[in-house]
Design brief:
The protein is α/β, with parallel strands linked by helices. The protein has a single domain, classed as Rossmann fold. Helices cover about 35% and strands about 20% of the residues. Strand 6 and strand 7 form a beta hairpin.
Length: about 180
């Protein structure tokens, strides 16, 4: 049986490491689809001059020509015990295990090798929920990706006009379009 991979995160903005992780799974013949969960909370550069929204992230993802197996999952609004509305892409990825639309499917979290605890965390949270899973929780091997890339460092490289630094994160073939999307208001 094929597996559905769920990948929660900020992805603001997406970079080479994210794409390598997504492609690691999407190109695997045993993977049915890859669902990305990203919240709508914008992220900023250290000087707050660059704001990356969810919409910009999706536009940037599209520059990378993702596989047809890749889609974006709906992120739900949740209410905290104090009445604050928030989003939690990680919990949305966990919720897939309990969603009747995924009944009988194999579900695994996708993660890079630099984050080995993600699978344990995902499994631990899923097991702590007091209702039966309708999907099968399985484990996948982590994705090998370009190490030490962070969206925070990418936002700051753009803010600082560090084009050489930016090349670590984004392929030359899309860098111009990438920057235009990021800096548009």
């Amino acid at each position: 049986m094929k597996t559905i991979i769920v990948i929660p995160g900020g992805f603001k903005p997406p970079h080479r490491g994210h794409i390598e992780m997504i492609n690691h799974y999407a190109m695997n013949e045993n993977i049915e689809k890859v669902i990305i969960f990203s919240g709508s909370t914008p992220r900023t550069s250290k000087d707050k001059g660059l704001v990356v929204s969810k919409q910009k992230s999706i536009e940037l993802f599209n520059l990378f020509n993702l596989s047809d197996k890749v889609c974006f999952g709906k992120v739900a609004e949740r209410i905290s015990s104090t009445g604050v509305v928030y989003e939690n892409p990680f919990m949305d990825a966990v919720d897939v295990l309990f969603d009747e639309n995924f009944s009988g499917k194999n579900i695994a979290i996708g993660f890079p090798m630099k984050e080995p605890s993600y699978a344990d965390r995902y499994e631990s949270i899923a097991m702590s929920i007091d209702k039966p899973m309708v999907a099968n929780l399985v484990r996948m091997t982590p994705a090998e990706t370009t190490d030490n890339l962070s969206a925070t460092d990418l936002r700051n490289a753009i803010q600082d006009n560090d084009l050489e630094g930016l090349k670590r994160f984004v392929p030359d073939s899309i860098i111009e379009k990438y920057i235009k999307i990021l800096i548009k208001k």
